Amino acid sequence: MNMSYLKYFFFGYLAILWKINYVHNTSFSNLKWEYDFYSIGDLHGDKDAFIRILLNESIIDIENKVIRNNVLTVITGDVLDPTYDDIDIILFIKNYNESGKSLNSKIILLLGNHEVNNLCLKFKTPQSNIENYKYRNDMFRKGGTIYNYLIDSPFVVNVNNIIFSHAGVLPFYSTYGIDFINEEGKKEIINNCELLNQKLQNQQELCIACEYGPTLNRYYSYVTKNVFSESKVCSSLYKSLGLLKSNRMVIGHTVQRNKQVNSFCQDKLLLADTGISKWKNGVISYIQYFNDGSYK
């Protein structure tokens, strides 16, 4: 065997290892998407509303098959809400992403506090129906169908310099970067939240799925209170955006009183939870983004 062949074999082997590592360590810190691009707020178990949005944009047909090429949709968490269609939504997203590969169409589901609570086996199951929900809840135990799917979902994603998260990323967390947030958050919730429970017990400051992290904080929603609050919130927002090298942040988590997507901080903050779910008595809404930075 000559040296040139060995050299070819060696570098080929390294390339294979790199590809394997890349596939299993997907970074959500700087995704670029030049095609059709949407985001959807908190669905809270309303599959009908979800399907209506996808049908309205001709992303799926009436048989729920993916029919549109080159579409990225980001859902900003809180899909789950027991007693409704929440499990069906997760399974729909899973199947959508499998069948949409050939069309380059996919859905990124971010983790919200409802997803984290379920992975931690903290269920809001009606006491009168505990037995009826046992099968559902068991799917969130380690090794369960929904556990296995959600455990790889990100907390934060940056697409075209727009930050998406359920509750927003505060400057303290932004200093660590998106990849760290997602990796540390996964460590916290794996094994049904063993590490998260330890951090809560020890009141550890660096905690992704805790009160001030990107699934639970309400800080950015205070922008609506008064001029002083708006100035303070916007200052924090600009700092986070600078640290994350991005231009805008889109969050859900707090239902807007006017049931509209509201813009603040020179159009750099979008509060997008309009209470889509029929059980929240809100308005079905979503946002479409364009390559020139505009949206509607």
TrEMBL record:
InterPro entries in UniProt: Calcineurin-like_PHP (IPR004843), Metallo-depent_PP-like (IPR029052), MPP_Shelphs (IPR041787)
One Pfam family named in its UniProt record: Metallophos
UniProt domain Calcineurin-like phosphoesterase: residue ranges: 40-223
Superkingdom, natural source: Eukaryota
GO MF entries: hydrolase activity
PANTHER family, per database record: SHEWANELLA-LIKE PROTEIN PHOSPHATASE 1 (PTHR46546:SF4)
Protein name: Ser/Thr protein phosphatase, putative
Species in which this protein is naturally found: Plasmodium yoelii yoelii
